[in-house]
């Protein structure tokens, strides 16, 4: 199991990558 802080950090990084991908696609 991951610590909650590690899960939040991972989710934050994935959201940032998706946000960047949508910017490049626009």
Structure notes:
The protein is mainly α. It has one domain. Helix content is 85%, strand content 0%. It contains one helix and no strands. The model has no long low-confidence stretch (mean pLDDT 79).
Strand percentage lies at: under 5%
Helix/strand/pairing class, anyone?
mainly alpha
Order of helices and strands: H
User: Could you estimate the helical fraction of the residues in percent?
Assistant: over 70%
Form type: rod-shaped
Q: For the terminal residues, how far apart are their CA atoms?
A: 37 Å
State the low-pLDDT regions, or none.
none
Key words describing this protein structure:
1 helix; mainly alpha; 0% strand; 26 residues
Question: Concise description?
Answer:
The chain is mainly alpha-helical and 26 residues long.
